[in-house]
Design brief:
- The complex is a heterodimer of chains A (about 240) and B (about 260).
- By secondary structure, chain A is an alpha/beta fold.
- Helix content of chain A is about 40%, strand content about 25%.
- Chain A contains 9 helices and 10 strands.
- In chain A, α3 crosses α4 and α3 runs parallel beside α5.
- Chain B folds into 2 domains: about 35 residues; about 220 residues, MetI-like fold, CATH 1.10.3720.10.
- Chain B contains 13 helices and no strands.
- The longest helix of chain B has about 40 residues.
- Chain B is an all-alpha fold and about 260 residues long.
- The chains are: A alpha/beta (about 240), B mainly alpha (about 260).
- Chains A and B meet through α2 and β6 of A and α8 and α9 of B.
Chain lengths: ~240, ~260
């Protein structure tokens, strides 16, 4: 379990405050809020790239607040996926294993196993530039999952996808999580993404965590109602 | 009406561009037209004194300029990385200092090198009597070449490192890979083109240096000093011969690099 207590981050004029947040093992937590509220800052703080001025981050009761990003192993999947362009898909997925001293045979088995689960074994010899956005997303997820992370951090991973592929991608993520039960923190400003994917939804505004809800309770909350209100014309139009 | 104006504007642009190209090509063509095959053969192969002087100056220039490039590469990578990736107090001052040799007249660059490392230079004064001087020495040529080409190497490498998406490095570190391994496996390979460009440009700058070298070390003679000497002693005909040789080597090397880059 990941516990966050009294976390405060200051970046220039911006202040991020997370008074208390627990992320359960194998949970898919969606962090939601309007653009510019500090969701990405929160992710990069968890990953260790931004140091908080106050507060603690604990993983299974071990304080990791001051540990370096590479020691935390909280892989990030940014919205543009950031696959290494000079490496094949295979080399991208194997990257984390290679530098962690995993021997070649074991690494090879793990890469092929995860590629099989994510249905990308036919892409292993290709370079990222030749992949579609959906394929890149799968490779980025495989690269993150193969290192047995404590948690994977997804920063608006569906943002670059064609809207027509959104539901397919959501379904894919949902099924993958059901199958592998990894812990994930997924940042988005999209209510549909949050409700369909999240085991729980952490809602942020103006740099502050305002509450954590089950999806159905979020819809009924004062914050959720605003989003549902915005969707009403579409629902009405569709009958 | 608009279409006619656009066409006229394009003709004007092409006209001005053609003049610029002519300004570059005309002296090159003129140099080759001025070349005399007989003198060329005599200077480079027939006359034992002249040919020995020419070839040894050419090899010396290439040896020292390659050494200068290797040293600058070793220096340029860490400085370029620091400037591209970190913000710190005094960074813009450091960047301005690095670019000083670009703005310094070459004769003054030579005077500066002598002031630091010459017979009566600062270093000798600090050493208090222990003799150290780079005047008329290979080391002097090396220092003069390094001084004039260091900004090109650092700036080109810096631009290369800065052009690598920082998120790639963050993602790599978040996968549990240490900073120095991320540098070696992600940043460095993705900046390779800029690093190679930095090497080629700073090498070319080092080879072409003459002003600073004339002041620091007239002897042993580099190819440019020899061209200058032959021009003042024997006249244009002999200087043209050596110039054609050096320029042809440059063109072949740059053409080869261009073909490799294209591939």
């Amino acid at each position: 379990m990941i516990k966050i207590r009294d976390l405060v981050v200051i970046l220039g004029d911006f202040k991020l405050e997370i008074p208390s947040l627990d992320i359960r093992d194998q949970e898919y937590l969606v962090v939601m809020g309007p653009s510019g509220v500090g969701k990405t800052v929160f992710l990069y703080t968890l990953a260790g790239f931004i140091k908080p001025i106050k507060g603690r981050i604990l993983v299974n009761d071990v304080d990791i607040t001051d540990t370096e990003p590479e020691e935390r192993c909280f892989p990030i999947i940014p919205e543009e996926y950031c696959l290494f362009p000079h490496m094949t898909v295979y080399e991208n997925i194997a990257f984390g294993l290679k530098f962690r001293g995993v021997n070649y045979d074991k690494a090879n088995d793990k890469v092929r196993e995860i590629a099989n689960i994510l249905e990308i074994n036919n892409l292993l010899n290709r370079y990222p530039e030749s992949l579609s956005a959906g394929e890149k997303q799968r490779v980025a997820i495989a690269r993150a999952l193969v290192v047995n992370p404590n948690v994977i951090l997804l920063d608006e991973p569906l943002r670059n996808l064609d809207p027509r592929l959104h539901s397919k991608a959501r379904e894919f993520l949902k099924n993958l999580h059901k199958k592998l039960r990894f812990t994930a923190i997924h940042v988005t400003h999209d209510i549909v993404e949050a409700i369909t994917l999240g085991d729980r939804i952490a809602y942020m505004e103006k740099g502050k965590l305002l509450g954590v809800y089950e999806p159905h309770k979020f819809i009924e909350s004062q914050y959720g109602k605003l989003y549902i209100e915005a969707l009403k014309p579409v629902i009405k139009y569709l009958g | 009406m608009n279409r006619v104006s656009a066409e006229k504007f394009l003709i004007l642009l092409y006209g001005i561009s053609s003049l610029a190209i002519l300004l570059i090509l005309l002296p090159i063509i003129a140099l080759y037209l001025m070349g005399d095959p007989e003198t060329f053969y005599k200077v480079l192969f027939q006359d034992p004194i002249l040919s020995k002087e020419a070839w040894s100056a050419l090899f010396l220039t290439f040896e020292i300029s390659i050494l200068s490039t290797i040293i600058l590469l070793i220096i340029g990578i860490p400085i370029g990385y620091i400037l591209a990736r970190f913000d710190f107090r005094g960074k813009s001052i450091l960047e301005a200092i690095i670019d000083i040799p670009l703005l310094t007249p070459h004769i003054i660059a030579g005077i500066m090198v002598i002031s630091a490392f010459g017979r009566n230079g600062i270093v000798n004064r600090i050493l208090m009597g222990r003799y150290f001087s780079v005047e008329d020495d290979v080391l002097g040529i090396l220092l003069a070449m390094m001084f004039v080409s260091i900004p090109i190497m650092i700036d080109t490498i810096k631009v290369g490192f800065a052009s690598v998406d920082r998120n790639l490095e963050l993602v790599a570190r978040s996968l549990g890979v240490s900073l120095h391994r991320v540098f070696l496996s992600i940043t460095l390979p993705l900046s390779a083109r800029s690093i190679i460009a930095g090497c080629v440009l700073s090498w070319a700058r080092a080879v072409s240096e003459v002003g600073a070298i004339l002041i620091v070390a007239y002897h042993p003679k580099t190819i440019n000093v020899l061209i200058y000497e032959w021009y003042t002693t024997y006249g244009l005909k002999y200087a043209v011969t050596l110039s054609i040789l050096l320029l042809s080597i440059f063109i072949v090397i740059f053409a080869a690099i261009w073909v490799i880059y294209k591939k």
